[in-house]
Design brief:
It is a single chain. The protein is an alpha+beta fold. Helix content is about 35%, strand content about 40%. The chain has a nine-stranded antiparallel beta sheet, with helices on one face.
């Protein structure tokens, strides 16, 4: 497996309601990562995370009414600090792009509301879509709501009822044989649709 050289968070954004700030602070508890919090005059906060190697990242949370908004772009090398930021990003439903840089290629992860929506691999001279989230709920709702098969089953049952009525009323053996043939065809079709 390729060794990651660095991770860049590009135009990353976290929106935290005021009530979630204490939960955010609980998420950054790690014995190998120190943090400092500065509360500014406007109620905004600046959280600085520093790992044991000395690498640090500054998370500026601007207070906007009852929300704390953190917009940032930075590059990290240390895996522990990178992992913590990614966990925070997922837990608090962040948006933005993450560039994972490896020798010879780059992986672009596009996040929306804390979930990866698309992953693209960039190599010199080429790009490849690795993953793309597809919302399958509309398709499932359509299939669930679709009544085409139920209508066809109902139509077959009505045709079978009519054929049975004609069969009981008929005295002609050739017509009865023709009706039986149609009944067999309809019953096969009905069996397929109901299965």
């Amino acid at each position: 497996m390729a060794q990651r050289l660095a991770t860049e968070f590009v135009n990353a954004r976290l929106l935290l309601p005021e009530s979630q700030m204490s939960k955010f602070m609980q998420h950054i508890q790690d014995p190998r990562i120190r943090y400092r919090v500065r509360v500014l005059e406007s109620g905004s906060r600046e959280i600085v995370l520093e790992d044991e190697s000395g690498e640090e990242v500054n998370l500026p949370f601007d207070r906007r009414r009852n929300l704390f908004v953190c917009e940032l772009s930075f590059r990290l090398v240390n895996p522990r600090l990178t992992h913590m930021i990614r966990r925070l990003f997922v837990a608090f439903r962040g948006d933005g792009m993450v560039r994972r840089i490896y020798p010879g290629f780059v992986m672009l992860d596009f996040y929306a509301e804390g979930s990866v929506r698309r992953i693209i691999e960039l190599t010199p001279g080429a790009s490849r879509l690795v993953f793309e989230h597809r919302d399958q709920v509309p398709e499932l709702e359509y299939r669930f709501g679709s009544t085409d098969i139920e209508r066809e089953i109902e139509n077959i049952r009505m045709r079978v009822d009519l054929l049975l009525d004609r069969r009981h009323a008929s005295l002609n053996p050739e017509e009865i044989e023709r009706i039986d043939k149609m009944l067999r065809r309809e019953s096969r079709r009905l069996f397929i649709l109901e299965a």
